[in-house]
Amino acid sequence: MSASKENMVILGAAESGVGTAILAKKLGMHVFVSDFGKISDKYKAELEKYQIQFEEGQHSQEIILAADVLVKSPGIPDKAPIIKKLKEANIQIQSEIEFAAKHTTAKIIAITGTNGKTTTTLLTHHFLIRQG
Length: 132
What we know:
By secondary structure, the chain is α/β, with parallel strands linked by helices. Helices cover 40% and strands 17% of the residues. It has one domain (7-104): NAD(P)-binding Rossmann-like Domain (Rossmann fold), CATH 3.40.50.720.
């Protein structure tokens, strides 16, 4: 990995993980995406389009533990072995939203949680449209 660029590792290669990878690449970071499961063909094509290195079916600890900053999917539990090792190594762990928020000037309305996001988002959209 290049010492001249900040090394970003992203755990999880679904919609937001791939979006984060693309943003990091556009910001000039060295990006590596790791997914313990299988990456869909759609997301592999996006990663390849932006020439972002990735792996699936494993987490290569040597590469991951060399990260300057790590972004993890919210679906990866804090008790996962790789997350424990990252914490022991004092590697900064961010959420996808936290990383993206640092790189925009847009106003943000964040709606998170397990249930009710779609309903809350639609209601918020309705309120904003009604208020102009």
